[in-house]
Amino acid sequence: MAARYQISVIFTDACNMRCAYCTTAKRPSHLDSDRLSKVARLLARTSPAPLDLNFHGGEPLLNWPRVVELVTHMRPQMGERRVSLNLCTNATHLTAERARFLADEGFNVRVSIDGRKASHTRFRKARDRKADPADLYDATLAGLRHLSKAGARVAANMVVTPNTVDDLLSNAVFLIKQGLVHLVISPVVGMPWEDRHLLALDRQLRQMSVVWRHWMRTAPTRRHEDLRRSILSEIDRATYCIGERMNQPDALVLVFGPDGRIFGDEPEIRTEKALVLGHLDHTEDLDALPSLPRTAFQLMYDREFYAPHVLRDVRRTHRLLRNRMTDLYTDLFGHAPQTNLRFSAP
Ligand code: SF4
């Protein structure tokens, strides 16, 4: 029996956007009701250990009825175990009603937004080529406002590219002004990071300290803890992307795909075959599934799923990110972070 379950459900591979750096396979498959209830039944049979339940896509809001359905299935378990609900979305299909639902159910919502319009729309385009990416950006901002009004806990998933790195700080300030504290900064994978871009990334990240110090002077003290936990979470995430973190031996990490495949970590186009552990239709006991000690990123490096120069860039950008986040933590909180633990986002 696992001491902790980290379960992700991919509600659909489909998305209404076509971000240049997206690595999700855009198959039109949606998770159906039967498979969803089976996921909930299997979870109910596990030990009542803490459960992180992640709602993923594609764009999960394109399969909204199933999102609501899984929450309904999970309610009986929520009294018996600690369940944290996390959803990742581009927020373009987020209405006031949906935002209220997510807030009321206690979701941590991660919104894919890179900052201001110019940076965001540079690589995030609409699936419908005739649609204006600026309209989708406005829809994302409207979604953020709905979440904020509903009182939901929100983080921003900011992709930074060599073309937008010089605007990283101003994009971060923009998002902080929208009320966000947890900024998940993801250096893009697959675009060439030259030395001058890395220097720019370093410069921009170093200046974050000034921004957050200013923020701490005016923000309520209870929010300082949100910031502390979010920086720890980013240090952990960078360590995972560098390939230096194994899956914890006592945690069961599983990802359910919309077609019923079960993976041992987050799949993407190049790694998904190596991550398959089984199929939902032939599984009756989650704890009996074979375990995957190597994470998706470790397999990516081991088996060179990307060209060596791409893998080198992933390591270089994430090492830089980890170092600067560690410095930021020490600078803001007066002592070095403990990095041997996994931290959930606030
Ligand atoms: S919004 Fe997310 S899932 Fe959709 S294309 Fe962009 S990165 Fe991919």
Word description of this protein:
The chain has a single domain (4-333), classed as Alpha-Beta Barrel (TIM Barrel), CATH 3.20.20. 44% of the residues lie in helices and 17% in strands. The protein contains 12 helices and 11 strands. It has helices at 33-44, 64-78, 96-104, 117-123, 133-150, 168-177, 195-206, 208-218, 221-242, 272-275, 296-302, 308-333; strands spanning 4-10, 17-19, 51-56, 83-89, 108-112, 124-126, 153-160, 182-187, 251-256, 261-263, 276-279. Strands 8-7-5-4-3-1-9-10-11 form a 9-stranded mixed beta sheet. The chain has a two-stranded antiparallel sheet with strand order 2-6. The relative contact order is 0.14. Mean pLDDT is 94; it is low at 341-346. The chain binds iron/sulfur cluster (SF4). The site of iron/sulfur cluster has 12 residues, from strand 2. Iron/sulfur cluster binds next to strand 2.
- The CATH topology is TIM Barrel
CATH architecture: Alpha-Beta Barrel
Low-confidence stretches: 341-346
Alpha-carbon distance between the two ends:
27 Å
Number of helices: 12
Specify the CATH class. Alpha Beta
CATH superfamily: Aldolase class I
String of helices and strands: EEHEHEHEHEHEHEHHHEEHEHH
Question: How many E-type strands?
Answer: 11
Determine the fraction of residues in helical runs and give it as a percent range.
Answer: 40-55%
Strand order of the largest sheet: 8-7-5-4-3-1-9-10-11
The average pLDDT is 94
Strand pairing plus helix content: what structural class? Answer: alpha/beta
